[in-house]
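User: Hi! I'm working on a homework problem where we have to compare a predicted structure to a textbook description. Could you give me the structure for the chain below?
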Amino acid sequence: MRLRGKIAIAMAVLTALTAIIVAVSTYVVTNNRVRSEVDQYLNSYAQRFQDPDGRQAQITCSQGASRRLPQGGQRNDESIEGVAFQCIERNGGVVATIGVASLPVNGRDEAIASNGRGKQIRTVQVSGDTWRVETVGVAQGGAVQIARDYGETNRVLSALRIWLSFIVIAAAAISALVGWLIARRATKPLVQLTDAAEEIASTGRLDVDVPEAGKDEPGRLARAFATMLAALGQSREQQQQLVQDAGHELRTPLTSLRTNVETLQRYPDLPTETRDSILADLESETRELGSLVDELVQLATDTWDDEPEEELSLDQIAERVVERTRRRTGRIVEIDAQPAPMVGRPRELTRAIGNLVDNAAKFSNAPSSVEVIVRPGFVSVRDHGPGIAAEDQPHLFDRFYRAADARSKPGSGLGLAIVDQIVRSHGGTVTAGNAPDGGAIFTITFSSLTSSFDTPPEPR
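Assistant: Happy to help. Predicted structure tokens:
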């Protein structure tokens, strides 16, 4: 069942229950009120027969005795002012009736007649008619039954029951219709979102129309859905761009490898010096290709081996990176570090700082040094190379981007992109700029950890 149908049924049931409660309450209150009025009417007559000398009862019973019909006869006279009477002797026998053939006499009535005291009110059936009867004792002995036709009242109450039932049914039907219309209007954005999701699932297209977003919950859902589609579209574009760029970057080392291998196959008698040079090229290209594949996998998956976060020290990580770079390159790498504890993933941060230091060593010719400064939540790496051209600065952290003067140097163009991704995953930012006296400066800042100083120190 659709949501709009469920809402319509729920509204109909709720309205029906409310209407039933109101109808039952109305009927019960009306029935009690009408019965109370009839009983008050009978009580007003009963008071007439409670005179001390019983004179009123004698007058009424003597009139009724002269007009009494045989047992089973019909009403022998029209009731006085709509009221019928029946007189009972002390021994329980009926001596007179007015306005009715006969009224039933039970044990309680006989006890009242015997004592001449007390009264009771009840509803009885006489020849298919309903009467409300009050039995009242007479001071001189005996009792008088005062009866009022209750049939008309029952007919009114029966008509009231029918009307109340009709109102309940009509209210439930109208409520269901109104609920369905309201639900149809309220769920229209949800239906449109469902259609859009089904179209995306069947076609794979992300450029589907999303309904206009309002300020209610469906509107919020529509905006979230549109944002999700935009993010998916951007992710798909990035994936396609990554595949295209990766194919382009992989093509160059693979071509070189294939050329060198073909050369070795065609010319088995190459001079030793030439063969060693080709093998060295093969080893270098293989290393570059392996590094490029690793970086591509890391960028494409964004998992980074699912390394857990832990407490670490940026200064210790930077010192290990600096020592490693010194061993590998033989370059002068200076470090000015203060204790900088934080929570993060050590292998990722080692890779990020290492990429910056390796990049500085690559673009800063010997004997110039590379300078590293570490403070709480802050790492800067400076080289003394040619600096960064203005047209290159906006694209430094793009995947596979390589400046014109860097294309002759080894590298895949992914190192800085990896740095940016790692730093952002730790809630930080990385920026690049030029030092006033020459050289490039790369700065990593973790904003939640920089409160211990107002202004980070400038690299020397």
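For your comparison, note the following. Confidence is low (pLDDT under 50) at residues 68-79, 450-456. The first helix runs from residue 3 to 46. Good luck with the assignment!
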